[in-house]
């Protein structure tokens, strides 16, 4: 099944649309998830957007660092395109304008589980709630194409906006770990600190999880 991720990331430019996952709202297509491919590395606007969005949303990720276009290109190349258990999609609205991103990480073929990764809305789309539907589309694709039985994600405990969406999609909290802030030069990382009690920690990392059956029930509600 990892071959599926590889095929999407190597989708030829001429056939890219057949590798896009449609985003439906009330039965109507309102956008699509377009995989980042090896051609993305040469699309300057795409690299620029990913860089700008990551910089603007840095506080909601566990590491904050000076974000550059070259750094983003290297990250896409080495951490996403070359990783066999990971994929990243651009969320595009109905006129194919990229408005955000979402991916899958740590795909485990044997356990049939995977982490939802790098969710971010960079700008407002034409359809307000598109992120929710983008996640539904990605989850359904993961179940169908990758045979996923469990999806999970990690989110900072003070990210109420993101957690609200995840709860709507059936994700439930399974673990909460205290974090400690480590700053080295212009890089800040929030690292797990089991020695701290929940009350002492400045921030926490929450793991949320959903099983396929529960997810299908949620999908039905939104159809
Ligand atoms: C998380 C993110 C993708 C959400 O997408 P979005 O399009 O902004 O979503 P919305 O603004 O519609 O908010 C989503 C929901 O959260 C609710 N919400 C907003 N602020 C909230 C808060 N402080 N507490 C609880 N719920 C809140 C909204 O009302 C909405 O719910 P509704 O549709 O039931 O009304 C976006 O905010 C983002 O890119 N954040 C920065 C990156 C990030 O945090 N990524 C997640 C990493 S785990």
UniProtKB/TrEMBL annotation:
Keywords: Acyltransferase, Transferase. It comes from the Bacteria. It is an enzyme of class 2 (transferase). Pfam families: Acetyltransf_3. Its EC number is 2.3.-.-. Residues 45-194 form the N-acetyltransferase domain. GO terms for molecular function: acyltransferase activity. This is GNAT family N-acetyltransferase. It comes from Paenibacillus hodogayensis.
């Amino acid at each position: 099944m990892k071959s599926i991720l590889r095929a999407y990331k190597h989708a030829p430019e001429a056939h890219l649309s057949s590798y896009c996952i449609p985003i439906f709202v009330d039965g109507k297509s309102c956008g699509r998830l377009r995989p980042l491919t090896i051609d993305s590395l040469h699309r300057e606007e795409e690299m620029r957007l990913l860089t700008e969005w990551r910089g603007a949303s840095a506080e909601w990720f566990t590491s904050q660092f000076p974000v550059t276009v070259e750094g983003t290109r290297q990250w896409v190349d080495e951490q996403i395109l070359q990783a066999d258990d990971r994929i990243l999609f651009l969320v595009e609205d109905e006129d194919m304008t990229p408005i955000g991103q979402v991916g899958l990480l740590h795909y485990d073929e044997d356990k049939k589980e995977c982490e939802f990764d790098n969710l971010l809305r960079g700008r407002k789309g034409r359809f307000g709630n598109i992120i929710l539907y983008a996640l539904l589309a990605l989850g359904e694709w993961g179940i169908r194409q990758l045979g996923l039985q469990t999806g999970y994600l990690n989110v900072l405990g003070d990210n109420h906006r993101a957690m609200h969406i995840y709860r709507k999609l059936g994700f439930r909290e399974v673990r909460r770990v205290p974090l400690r802030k480590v700053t080295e030069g212009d890089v800040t990382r929030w690292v797990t600190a089991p020695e701290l009690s929940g009350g002492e920690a400045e921030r926490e990392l929450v793991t949320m999880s959903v099983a396929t059956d529960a997810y299908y029930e949620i999908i039905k509600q939104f159809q």
